[in-house]
Design a protein that fits this description.
The protein is mainly beta and about 110 residues long. It contains no helices and 7 strands.
């Protein structure tokens, strides 16, 4: 009787350009960011193309947000909501005119 060995699953090694501490996975969700001082949510901005990891989130937005600034992100998974403060670590304009933002959870 022969036994077949299963392939060993290993974590990918990040290269120098990839600073993530965990794999980022795309999800279909509703998401918004707002200022931490805007308690009535009047300035809430919808974001799209959300990618989550254990340590942060990436998304596209219509306007530039300052690197190093703090925001509150609300992400909806059906009936569930996740709300967290984030710090913007990168923001760059894409060819489509949107801004691609990377943020870490606080």
């Amino acid at each position: 009787m022969s036994t077949q060995s299963l392939p060993l699953i290993t974590r990918r090694k990040p290269d120098e350009s990839d600073r993530r501490r965990s794999i980022r996975v795309p999800h279909v969700v509703e998401a918004w960011i707002s200022s931490p001082t805007d308690f009535d949510k009047t300035q809430q901005m919808e974001v799209c193309s959300v990618n989550l990891s254990r340590h942060g989130v990436a998304f596209d937005i219509k306007q530039n947000v300052a690197t190093g600034s703090f925001w509150v992100i609300e992400i909806g998974f059906g009936d569930q909501r996740m709300i967290s403060e984030v710090r913007i670590v990168s923001c760059r304009k894409t060819e489509s005119g949107l801004f691609e933002v990377g943020a870490e959870f606080c």
